[in-house]
Amino acid sequence: MSGLVNYISCAMLWLGLAVKLPDLLRHPQDPFLRAICAVLALAGLSFVLGAPPTVGAINDLSGIPNLAAPMTYATITAYSAASQVLVVCWRGGPRTHRISRRWIVAYAFVVLGIAVTFALGEAPVERRTDLDTYYATTPFIAEMIVLYLVAHLVAVAFTTVSSLRWARQVHGWLRAGLIILGMGTLCASGYSLSKLAAVAARWFGHDWSALDTDVSRAAAGLGAFVTSVGVLIPLAGPALTRWLASWRTYARLAPLERELDDVLTRRSLRLARPRWAAPGTRLMWRQTSIHNALSYLDAFFDRVLYDRALDAELRATGDPRRAEATAWAAVIAAAAHDERGGDTPPDAGRLPGEGPAAGALVAIARALATSPLVAAARLGALAADGAAPAAQAGALNAAGAGPLSGGWGGQPRGGEGLREGRGA
Question: Would you list the DSSP string of 213-278?
């Protein structure tokens, strides 16, 4: 038999090990990281040692028939102990080290028992796939088989119960990971249960070897995959959440960057766009570009326009945060137009040194893309380029701002729209 299922299962487990190994190298004294890496390493090794080609190679190289069997069983037992230590360390508490030591010592005796019973028994005929049922009635070898299967079953039962019980007390990625881990170890229990059933059937003269060779292997493979996912989800989940949040914020800031694109390009305020960068790096680049442009435009920020837009949006929606974001969007759109037109900003009525809060940038970007009030402010800004005053007033009224045309300092500027005319 090719042992393909074993090798695929090992590859999945060791892939998870490769993800966590750098963390272990950075924090070698962390018991939780050590337990995770031990579980993934030993589980993968169990599958490698149990694959028929590996069994044959070990037996041939050692010259001892079936030596691969106690090696595999000892590795499975060590994995069982590591699984229980992982749950204990994961949960933590004042007795973590004491309980972990108890599990390790108990399963060390099981490994010793496997070695002793194999040495005392006789297994001269090599069996690569069905040793458990073939030697189920052989003295000492039968005891070795039952010993490792019961130890594995106890371990997966403990892990399943502990994981699912703890999952009811937590939330988020940890809860999801514990539930999946519990389901994985429940699937893995099918490995020892099917083999124990096949061995018991052999004791009573029945041949259920299919449980030993086919069902147990499928249960072990499925259990390994689900278990590895359950272990990695609480570790990778928060990073995935941050990745998605960074990407979502990066995309939502696009309208604001587009509004500032002209000043960023002409004034060389934008850093080189990062290539093949993570979403967090891309987000930092976009935020830096936006802040550079806003810092450059702060002399053009019109306090009168801000106050009038804030009041109009507040009356229309009753939402102070939305009103503030819309007011800033109108101010930024107008400031970008003024700077592009080469207008020299007067000192009076400006917002020097003030700017939108960093947390409001996404809302400002949304207002730039969707707010009719901001669209009206753009029309007002374009009045100097020949837009019809009547059309601008209509757009403003449609935005719900009311008739905001009028003089500032007693001198109205025709078609200024949302922004009042500036005194000379």
Answer: IIIHHHHHHHHHHHHHHHHHHHHHHHHHHHHHHHHHHHHHTHHHHHHTHHHHHHTT-PPPPPSS--
Q: pLDDT band for 207, please (50, 70, 90 cuts).
A: confident
- The answer to whether residues 328 and 356 touch, using CB atoms and an 8 Å cutoff, is yes
Q: Using 50, 70 and 90 to split pLDDT, how confident is the model at 405?
A: very low
Best CA proximity match to 210, nearest among 202, 198, 196: 198
Q: Is the pLDDT of residue 396 over 50?
A: no
Neighbours of 55 (CB within 10 A): 25
Q: Which of 412, 352, 347 is closest to 383 using CA atoms?
A: 412
Residue 350 is classified by DSSP as B
Q: Which amino acid is at 347?
A: D
Q: Are 263 and 339 in contact (CB under 8 A)?
A: yes
* pLDDT the model gives residue 50: 86
Contact 394, 375 (CB under 8 A): no
Residue 333 and residue 374 in contact, taking contact as beta carbons nearer than 8 Å: yes
pTM score of the predicted model: 0.71
CA distances in angstroms from 360 to 192, 263, 304, 325, listed in the order given: 57, 21, 20, 7
Length of the chain: 424
Kindly report, residue by residue over 52-91, the tens digit of the pLDDT: 899 999 999 999 989 999 999 999 899 888 888 888 888 7
Q: How far apart are CA 255 and CA 235, in angstroms?
A: 34
Res 343: pLDDT: 64
Rg (CA), the chain: 35
Q: Does residue 181 contact residue 110 with C-beta atoms inside 8 Å?
A: no
Tokens 């800033």 locate to 328
Structure tokens at 17: 């090990």
Assess contact for 9 and 45: CB atoms under 8 A: no
User: Tens of pLDDT along 230-277?
Assistant: 888 888 888 889 999 999 999 999 999 999 999 999 988 888 888 888
Q: How many CA atoms lie within 13 A of 238 on its CB side?
A: 5
CB 280 within 8 A of CB 298: no
